[in-house]
Each structure stands twice: as structure tokens, then as C-alpha cells.
Amino acid sequence: MNNKTKGALQILLVVVLIAAFAYVAVAGIGGAHKGKAQNIRLGLDLKGGVSVTYQANKANPTDQEMDDTVYKMQKRVEDVSTEAAVYKEGSNRITIDIPGVSNSAEILKKLGNAGSLQFIMYSDLKAKDGGTSPAEGDEVTFDKKNVKLDGSMIKEAKATTEQDQSTGATENVVEVTFNSKGSKKFGEITEANVGSQMAIVYDNKLVSAPTIKSAITEGKCTISGGFEKFSEAEELASTLRIGALPLELTNIHDNVVGATLGSEALRTSLIAGVIGLILVILFMIVMYRLPGVASSIALIFYVGAMLLILNGLNVTLTLPGIAGIVLSIGMAVDANCIIFTRIREELASGKTVASSIKIGFSKALSAIIDGNITTLIAAFVLYLKGSGTVKGFAQTLAIGIILSMFTALVITRLVMDAFTSLGLTDLKLYGTQKSRKPIDFIGNWKKYVIISGAVFVICIVGIVVNVNKGSMLNYSLDFVGGTSTSVSLSENKAITDADKDTALKVVKDNTGMEGELSTSDDNGVKKITIRTTSQTEDQAAKTRSELAKAFSVDEKKVESETISASVSSEMKTDAVVATIIAAICMLIYIWIRFRNLSTGVSSVLALVHDIIVVFTVYVVASSYIQVGSTFIACMLTIVGYSINDTIVVFDRIRENMHGLREQTPESLAEVANRSLTQTLSRTINTSVTTIVMVLLLFILGVSSIREFALPLMVGLVSGTYSSIFIATSLWYVMKLHFGKNKLAKKNAKKNK
User: Fold this and answer.
1) Are 107 and 44 in contact (CB under 8 A)?
2) What domain range is 13 assigned to?
3) Is 579 helix (H, G, I), strand (E, B) or coil?
4) Fewer C-beta within 10 Å: the chain N or C terminus?
5) Which 3 state secondary structure label does DSSP give 113?
6) Which of 118-132, 406-420, 559-573, 604-618 has the weakest average pLDDT?
7) Are 297 and 415 in contact (CB under 8 A)?
8) In angstroms, how far is the first alpha carbon of the chain from the final one?
């Protein structure tokens, strides 16, 4: 096989794979259309629905108790939605996500029930109002000592129909199966009480009171009579299946999201992604010529593979998750930028195109791996310490990082080799790295410190000003707890003072609480948000209903979220802990890889600089940006990006230090300046592509994404600045004055 044939086959392979990804994304595979992009599981913030998180009242529940409770809760929501997901969070919490539902008030009420189910003789009941013959649906009272069975002893219950043997008529019945313990007790009770009524009580209300016709010892019974409609039998069966929960639960977080708003968020985010992808492709082709074409092909492959992986792993795609994908597209070109810079350097030294490609990929490998691993550390910590949608961001970011490395090191390499095999070896198609005189970054390090110091002063001033106003930061519901209710107005309707007064009055009338009102505009959709202290489920449901009536909108356009104070406090703690853990893990990794403490310390100090800059944005712009769960995602993304940027420079410093015979202030400065100059174009190009993607999210995204995108953009700029001007300067100072480099220290004194 000649080279041209080999190259053509390589190109054909990549094109076929991309075409296959596109086909699967559009049409899917098989009758179930597996892999189809439309089948990607969407989170509540994109699809709408209800989410509730419960916490066990028991201090240290066992795994068995938690598993049993999850099972019972799953049974409870099966009648509501087949797409509902019930899962454990941590050791004592259970979260229920029910996408696509609109009867949120009914669902929250049902889920909020304790699920207390008892079997008791009817004669032992009393009506709550004092009567002795309660009817079905009446609230009742009874002595707990008289309870014969509870719902935990029920194995299964289902509604069905059967023919009455005496009349021949078909009637609706409920078939009940008990577990081994329940079978034994039920047999004893029925044997002793033939002819008497056994009451079924759920949440202190009489559900049914069937007559015991005979002793039942086989662990199964049929409840008949009184079910005029099959739905009535189904309702009782559902009640029996739910049974009593093994654990008592407290609602600590519930969220009702409108499907319309979720759909708009999905649409705008996808538009941002598509536009960003096109701009990145054009940028890479203009900057790197034929290698830019190779990276563009790899990037298209990346998008197709990402869609397939999201489907295959059944990842729940959230709004922050989409932001993570869009961000990872910008970062996906980073490895290509490192590789192409190396290739151009080899071409400039006189090597052939084929040889330059081989050497370029080899020399770029360590920087790519080290940089991406540090970002993966941030994503991993974010996944462990985050919750809900933040986990979605961490997942997609991690998948994006791993996939970007694969596409850069395998797909881009495959296409580049194919180009050379096809005879595309003209240097004009690749470009060469122009020989640049090293820029004296180190000589001006004091100026950079002054600039960073000025940012720190601004941060302190902003903190003092805001504290005098009442609060250092504008905390969102995530970090302060309470209830937030939002109503989206009809299109083209401006928000007036009368609208604001109406919204506040509705909340006041239904809750008795004074609300804190804010407004927003998400691509023409006007939204009024009222924040109060925590409302009950009934209060929140009533408020949503009355707001919908007051503004003549569908209740689907009214959202609410309630977070308990304990959860919000926990989330604040997690934000700080996550950032510290990520920084420590990165410091350890850098120290292991570079075997140089000054490298690790200077990297982390530069990282602290970037965190302060981003924190300053949150302080100064507190009127516009809230600090919530996405704050964690923003901070850790900056942590990963900043370290990634810095490591690329230090990797080049490590390489240039190999031929250094003597470490003097002059030689160290020369190495630092040369390394920074060599990596400068890659640093700028990567920053441009990433910032473009985030900028599009800011321009086109909904308000929650814009609040995330703005500080992230600032952080990306700061990360670029610190990797060029701060980290390396700190490394130089530490090499001179600390550690084992005594000779350099003496030389520094002599030169004064």
C-alpha cells in the first residue's frame, strides 16, 4: 500500500466515523432509536418538572433502611411518571427528580406525605371530631397499641377485576400480598376476627374498611366492594404499595421548574455552542492553516463523540452541563495549540514536515497530560462536593477533557499523518515559528506585583463598601435558604411598578411574608422573582397558583424553589472546602511531576491570585451577580484552567533547564523569559477560543448562565495574565532566595 492510498484511507476512516456519529445523532439505531440526540436525558432545568430532596430524621440510618426507603419512594412516584428517578445522596438524603410534569402542587403534596399506613380493627377507630363511626376519607384517631399491621409488611398491591361468583358481575378489587412477617400476623388477625371490619388508615385518614369474610393464612387477600371505578381501586393499591416508609423524612429542598423556561434555556445554549464551534474552527484555520483544518475535523469528531457518550452513559444533561460542554469546546483546542506550536518550532529548525509532526506530538505530550489532569482534579472535586446541576457541570467537563485529549492525540494525529501521506508537505501550508527575541518578563516582575496588588486593594474596598451596606456578597437561595418564586410574563410585556406591587401582594396574602423582589430579562422573557423565608409546600403551591391567575399566565410559567437553612449553610461550606481540596491536590500532583517545590508553590500562589480576582468580581458586581451553587463551579473551573495554563509554561521551563550548566540569576531569568516567549502564542490562542465560547454563553444564555459566564470570563483573563506574568516571576524569585540554590543566592548578592 503506497502512502497516498494510506493517507486517503485514514481521511476516509475519520469522515466515515463523523458521518456515523451524525447519523446516530439524527436518526438513532434500531427501533428504539438508541443514541439519538433527542433521547439524551434532560435535567429539570431544561425539561421542567419537580425535584425534591429529603433528609432522614434518624441520625445514622443504615444502608438497608436507606435502600428500603428509596424503593418505597420509587413505588410512590411510579404512578406519577415513568421517567422519575429516585436516588441516594450521601448517607442520609434521598432526591426525587420527576421531569416533564405540570401538576407540581399535587406531586409535592403526595411526596411530602409521611406514608404512615396502619391496619386496625374498625371498632377501635374514632372520628377526629369525636364520632364513633367514621366514614371513608374522615380523619381518625386511635390507640397505637391497637395497630395490627403497618405498611412495611406489604410486599405488593395491585388493582384488578374479578367476577363475583354469586352474581356473575365483574367488580374492581385490590389484590394484596404480604411479606413473611405480615403473612403470619395477618393470618392470626383474620382468624380471630371473621365477620368484623378491618380498617386501612393512611396518614390518619380512613381509606377503606373491608369485612373479613374468612381466615386468610396464605399471605394474600382481596379487598372488594365499594370500588365503583377502576381508578378508585388503583388509588387504594397505590396507597398500599407505598406503605410506611422505613425512615421519617424531612423535605429540605424542593424545586418546581417550568418546561417553557427550560426549553428556552436549551435553545439559546445550543445556539451559543453552534456559533462558538464555527468561530473556533475559523480561528484555528486562520491561525494554523492546514493543521487548523486537521484540528477542525477533530473538533467535529469531538462533538459527535460527545453526543454519543452522553447517550451511552445516560448522563443527565443540565443547563450548567451544557455550559460545561461549550466551555470544553473552547478548551479542546488547547492541546492542538500546544502541538502545533511545537510542530512549527521543529519546522523552523529545518526538519521535514513528517519529522516535525512526529517530534511535535512527542514533545507536547507531557504538557497536555499534566495540564488536563490538573483540570480533571478540579472536575472530580467539583463532582464530589457539588450537588444537583453542579454535578452535571462536573460530569460534562470531565468527559470533555478526556475526549479532547483523545481527539488531539489520536484523531488530529491521524489526519495530520494522512495529509503528509497525500503529499501536502509545503511549508506554506503549515507555517513556521518565527524566531522571537525573548521578552523580558522577569525584569518587570515588580510591576506585575503592583498591578495584582491594586486588584487586591479593589477587592478589599469592595468588601468594606458592601459590608457597610449590609452584606459582603449577594448570596443566592443556595447559600441563604428560603423560598424563591418566579413568574414569567407574556411576551413583549414590560414589567411595571404595578406588576411588582401585585407580585409582592400575592406573596404577602398567601404566606404572610414580606418578599424581596428582583427582575430579569432572558432573551425577551421578562421574569419577576420574589424571595422569602422558607414556605411550606402548601404555601408555595398556593402562591404559584395565585401568581399565575394575577398575571394571566399558565402555571407552567411559574417556578419555585425552597432550600432549608441547613442545606444552604452546608453548600457554603462545601464551596470553600472544595476549592481548598482542589488546590492541595494540584499542589501535590505538580510537586510529584516536577519534583520542585518552588514550581508547585508558585503555581498555587498564582492560583490564589486568580481566585482573588474572581472573588473581586463577585464583590464589586454584587448587585448583578449572585453567589450560589454555580459559584463553586466557576471557582473550580478557574482553578483547573489557571493551573493548566501555568503548567504549559513550567513544562517548557523544565525542558529548557536540562541544558543549563549553572543556575545564576541571569541564566534563570533567560530560561524563564525564553520559555514564556515560546509558549506565548499558544497561551493567547487557547485563551481567545475559550473566552469566545464563554462570551457567547454570556450574550445568548439565560440569566443564570450569564451570572456564571461573566466571572468565568474574568477568571480566564486573569488565569492567562497570572500564567504569563505572575507564576513564572514567583518561580524565579523562589529559585533565587529559597531552597537549595545557594549559589544563585550568593550571585544575586554579588550583583547588587
Assistant:
1) no
2) 3-26+264-429
3) helix
4) C
5) coil
6) 559-573
7) yes
8) 67
Among the three residues 523, 547, 563, which one is the final residue of a domain in this structure? 563
Beta partners for residue 87, in sequence order: 95
**pLDDT tens per residue across span 410-466:** 999 999 999 998 888 888 888 776 777 888 888 888 888 888 888 778 878 877 777
pLDDT in tens, 252-308: 787 877 655 566 777 777 788 888 888 889 988 998 889 999 999 999 999 888 888
CA gap 745, 739 in Å, rounded? 10
Q: How far is CA 150 from the centre of its chain?
A: 39
CATH (domain of 490): 3.30.70.260
Whether this model's pTM surpasses 0.90:
no
**Domain end (from 198, 226, 257):** 257
Query: Which candidate, 154, 147, 144, 177, places its Cα nearest to that of 68?
Result: 154
In a domain, 635, yes or no: yes
Cα three-residue angle 291-295-298, rounded to 5 degrees: 140
129 shares its domain with 175: yes
* Domain-located, residue 129: yes
Domain count, the chain: 5
The verdict on 458 and 596 lying in the same domain is yes
If asked whether residues 489 and 416 sit together in one domain, one would say no
Which amino acid is residue 89, in one-letter code?
E
Phi and psi at residue 62, in whole multiples of 5°? Answer: -75, 160
Provide the pLDDT confidence category of residue 180 given band limits of 50, 70 and 90: confident
**Cα dihedral value 676, 680, 683, 689, nearest 10:** 170
600 and 550 in one domain? Answer: no
Q: How confident is the model at residue 225 (pLDDT cuts 50, 70, 90)?
A: low
Separation between Cα atoms, residue 26 and residue 38, nearest integer Å:
8
